[in-house]
Amino acid sequence: MASLTLRWHGHACFELRYGGRSLLIDPHDGGSLGVGFTPPAAEPDYVLVTHEHYDHNAVEAVTRGREGVEVVRERVGDFQLGPFRVRGVRLPHDEFGGRLRGFVVAYRVEAGGVAVTHLSDLGRPLEPGEAEKLAADVALVPAGGVYTLHPRQALEAARLIGARVAVPMHYWLPGMQLPLEPLDEMLRYAKKWRVVRLEDAALELAKDELPDEPTVAVLPPPW
């Protein structure tokens, strides 16, 4: 069975490739993040939007007028996009039941026998039923706090869904105008995780090659 390719395009934007098809989650337009950032270098067949905030929903930046791109916004439940089996779970964007920032939809995407869950801007710890629905091999977790749950809680969310690999996202980088915490804030809580810093912004994921030890895989920014 072919492996599933995961590529980080910065901030909360990830691309999954399998069977010659590309699925992109939460595109940004580059410039609105700050100085020196560029839009995702991707031409997806499918786009998932977890919520309608400007740093997550820049669909035009990746479709660029191309026809035939299927865009799904905040869809809850189980559905299929080409070779990708998707589940959307509605979660609050804050610790007050969505009263402050509304809601997001976390997506669990499965292809090639590997499941990846994008936790979007989750604002409070996962409840047991939510964790069960989002169970996955790989968790894409918000690491910058401020607009999301605490970085320590983000790692706990990855553990609750059974992830063997946690990939940090949505944290401060030099030049960014969003007041997020840098990645080091999360890593200081990763005492029970093996931290691996990779040289490429992409991961090849195969079920039988996932690490036995819980691992934080730090991908380099694509810029």
Structural commentary:
This protein has a single domain, classed as Metallo-beta-lactamase, Chain A. The protein is 11% helix and 33% strand. It contains four helices and 14 strands. It is globular and about 45 Å long.
CATH topology: Metallo-beta-lactamase, Chain A
Instruction: Give the uncertain stretches in residue-range form.
Output: none
Quaternary status: single chain
- Tell me, rounded to a whole number, the average pLDDT: 96
The CATH superfamily bears the name Ribonuclease Z/Hydroxyacylglutathione hydrolase-like
Alpha-beta content class: mainly beta
- The N- and C-terminal alpha carbons lie at a distance of 31 Å
What is the name of the CATH class?
Alpha Beta
Number of helices: 4
Order of the strands making up the biggest sheet: 6-7-8-9-10-11-14-12
Give the CA-based shape.
globular
What is the CATH architecture descriptor? 4-Layer Sandwich
The main pleated sheet reads as: 8 strands, mixed
Measured by DSSP, the beta-strand proportion falls in 25-35%
What's the helix and strand layout?
Layout: E1 4-8, E2 14-18, E3 21-25, E4 46-49, H1 60-63, E5 70-73, E6 77-81, E7 84-92, E8 103-111, E9 114-118, H2 128-133, E10 138-142, H3 151-160, E11 165-169, H4 184-187, E12 194-197, E13 202-205, E14 215-218
Parallel strand pairs: 3-4, 4-5, 9-10, 10-11, 11-14, 12-14
Antiparallel strand pairs: 1-2, 1-13, 2-3, 6-7, 7-8, 8-9
